[in-house]
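To make this tangible, we now present a fold written out as tokens:
***
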Amino acid sequence: MESARRSGRFRVERDVLDELKLEEVTQRKSYADIHSSLSEQLKNSLRCNVPYLKQSIVSRLPVLYWLPKYSVWDYGMPDLISGISVGIMHLPQGMAYALLASLPPVFGLYSSLYPALVYFFFGTSRHVSIGTFTVLSIMVGSVTERLAPDVDFQKANGTNITAEVDVTARDSYRVQVAAATTVLGGLIQVLLGVVKFGFVGTYLSEPLVRAYTTAAAAHAVVAQLKYILGVSPTRFSGPLSLVYTLKDVCSLLPNTHLPTLLVSAVTIVLLIAAKELNSFLSSKLPVPIPVELITIVAGTLISSYAHLNTNYTISVVGEIPSGLSSPSVPDVSLFGEVIGDAFALAIVGYAITISLGKTFALKHGYKVDSNQELVALGLSNTVGGFFQCFSVCSSMSRSLIQDTTGGKTQMAGVASSLIVLVTILKLGTLFQELPKAVLSAIVFVNLKGMFKQYYDIVTLWRSSKIDLVVWLVTWVSTLLLNLDLGLAASVTFALFTVIFRTQLPTYSVLGNIPGTELYVDIETHREARGIPGVTIFRSSATVYFANADLYLEALKEKSGLNISKMIIYKRRQEAKQKRRERRAERRAKRQAKRELHDGDTTTLGSSSEDTLSHDLERVSLGSLGKWTWDIHSIILDLSTANFIDTVAIKTMKNIFQDFSEIDVDIYMAGCQASVVEQLEHGDFFSEKITKRRLFASVHDAVLHCLNHRGATTIPTYEPSVVRPANIQVSFSNTTFIRLGMDMLWLTIKYLKHFFDYRSCLPARNFKAFIQTHMENR
């Protein structure tokens, strides 16, 4: 025993287990034992269960779980430092991303305050920073500019409409649109979280998300060109809007406002240099240098003292109201127009948040509840929408700062919110002279990380061509169809690739590894040995309606059995046999009459003719090859199937029925318990197809086949002895040799009978024999 344990060997002796024996040994529970009835579930839900109620409240309000255990001495100072660092980043990013959403900058500060406070109570991730994010801001901007374009707010001078835009009315309506979209998106997230639909984010694969954010970065660059260049292009919406906008910007290049371009260029250069210096000194600095905050402070001071707006007509942020705005109910009438955009915002925001949350949870060893994260993010957006916030999610840059500066819990989010709150209440008016070109430059530089994702093309080319196609299709569709339609097209295409891969799985015939109970693909493993008389067939994907017909065709091809032709041939042979029996009866009557006149000589001819007919029939059956000589059993390895639908069940029934007509037994192996239950509910089992045809493993099925139908060699599992491979016989050659010997034997026998009849029969009887034989042929 010790030697076996040291060498990693094991030996198991047990009976061959079919499904009936397996249920008897394992005592499998029935469906009623596992699932309680609806009435029992209702009684349990109405029963006053204090521990369950407490657990339910804590799971919905996670702050009640971790806040009582919070240690100020251990976590207080790290959370405070981290929160201040993140709060400093909130200020420039909030105002800059508000421009992406086509809203006044102060609403970016609101979006950095309220949602973070709500997430503190309901979120389960300790390190994500909730607030404004580039992609969501662009998506909100596409909605606000579509429903509130500048042309709808041009001022009227008497009967004439001037090119001047009523900015106040336009921005007010855009805030309503953004708030309605945010509230509706939040409600969708809450609803999905309540019904345990947190897995919806898994449909957005990593290549899809990265390609989507890369294309969104291109939208962000084009949207910021008007602030960087100081031009006023026409804003387009719908498919190809990016192309039209870029074309319009290029046509306006001769009208570029040079002072604005100079401010943008200087800011971009300084930001890039400062960020590179920050990265170089990151190992030596306890806290990263707040480059963006320094930039907006310096830009505000220079603009204020140099009077850039007055002297050079450089566009500035403008009035920033101090204090907090009162909550208001969003315009419900807008829900019908923004429901598609709200759903896209809900899914994208959740996918980004949960991916970051799981990354940090894995790094620090705690668990993130995907459904609760969906609820927390939904409540953050819903409550924030009542305070004129636009859609938010976690930000990678701020979350990394929160993690690297030592943040331990959600208290860091509260500290960052306090920084934003102080800015809104006391410091907001100081940024009124900040040039919008500075904020656009901050957005432009922060997109550098997303532009680096173009390296994914090279990586995916080497690793997975299908993922590369998903990446490219997502990128192209998002660029051309805009963010909402691009996301729908990308997800649809990604799902089609999954269906495509399940429709065209790998079909293989398995062979045994000598001395083991292992079965692998014969084509890809040299040591795999086929089992005489048995074909083991496996599909790499589950069998369902989309590939059931392909499964059947692949089984026929791999087994080498043309079922349709063989069944037709068999029926023809049966019909011929019946006709032959009827002719034999008529011949017997005629022979009885002839015996009265000619003796027993014709009896010899008749029996010889019957022998020849039987031998010719045997040769014809032998010429069919595998059906007659090699295969007597087929094992369907269903270990890869995790479900089976009604179409697949009908296909399996047809397989059992068709192969039984040519005397080939069908068995199934490796079925999961859920698959067996689905077979039971689909009325798969009958008197002919019983659970005796299902086996716990392929090896059990092979042993049953060989014991039931016979074989020259039964594979045994002896881990302590590695036996040389059994000699394989080429069954096609054997069939060919046997066919040739039979033909030679029949030729000799036929000539012998022919000369015997010529020597012993009268001419009249010989002529009658020839005529009868020709009629039978």
